[in-house]
Amino acid sequence: MKKVVWTLVIFILFFIVFALFTYQVDQAEVAVRTRFGKILTVNTEPGLYFKAPFIDTILTRDKRIQIYDIPPESILTTDQKRLEVDTYVLWRISEPQQFIETMKTITSALTRLDDVVYSTLRDKFAELYIGDIISERRRRTLQLITDTAEKTMSQYGIDILDVDVKRTDLPSANAQAVFDRMKSERSKEASLIRAEGERQAQDTRARAQKDADILIAEANKTAEVLRGEGDAQALEIYANAFSQDPDFYRFWRIMTAYRNSMKDGTSIVMGKDMEYLNEFYGGITSLEITQTKEAQ
Predict the structure, then answer these.
(1) pLDDT digits (tens, 9 = 90+) for 233-263
(2) pTM for the full model?
(3) Domain boundaries, the chain
């Protein structure tokens, strides 16, 4: 029984001594061993390491990429528009020893990170118009902010991977006024576009009407020429035909005149001595009619 107890005691003492003389580094951490405030070793690889008990202090820090959500800040643009900009930063500890010597704690690092990013963001966005900030054109400026913050924070052993904007809002007091002005500007722009469209439509209709009038005039001109040529050919044909029998031509013309003048409901008062009515009397002349009356 005593042997079992002593074995258990030795086993417990072994683990106590083991814990006092060793420390473990996780995969996602870096460990810094200090003695009386002086950094002795920096362990970046996971594993089991030795330390001097009671006089060595082990400081561990997360070496993974971390996100810091900066509280929304008020930014004034170059066109004197105030915006509430909500940003975040992706960062990580690149030099553990330098980080411990300068920042010591994560809280101190985040405070410094907030100051650097906000001041840089404020200065860069102050050079932009509100339209540039709320559009994708801000990507170039954000890259400049990231590079500037990286140069500043590198002296603290911190690597800045990205600075980006989650949301950009107008202050509630100014939002309605800005929206009304934007609406007015868009309405004005729409009116100008409609006016320009109406002007172009009128020009198009005027050109189309002009082209139509020209086509109609040319068509009428061509029709008149063709009609004149046809009439001339018809007269020539008539002349050639009627020259072969003048008496028939005279008779045909008189019949045509009767047909055109003596229609239904037409009253004509004329004397018998008019040559126009000779064909009513069998083609005799007025002299023959007078001689006939005297003989009677």
Answers:
(1) 887 887 777 777 777 777 777 777 777 776 6
(2) 0.53
(3) 2-62, 66-169, 245-295
Detail the DSSP E strand segments found in 56-174.
Answer: 56-62, 66-69, 73-76, 82-93, 158-169
Which SS3 state, helix, strand or coil, does residue 278 take? helix
Is 157:93 a contact under the CB 8 Å cutoff? yes
Query: How many C-beta neighbours within 10 Å does residue 136 have?
Result: 7
Closest-CA residue to 130 (of 180, 57, 205, 80): 80
**SS3 state of residue 63:** coil
Closest CA to 152 of 109, 187, 107: 109
User: Per the CATH hierarchy, to which homologous superfamily does domain 66-169 belong?
Assistant: Band 7 domain (3.30.479.30)
Distances (CA, A) of 29 to 32, 217, 295: 10, 93, 156
- Grade residue 161 by pLDDT with cuts at 50, 70 and 90: very high
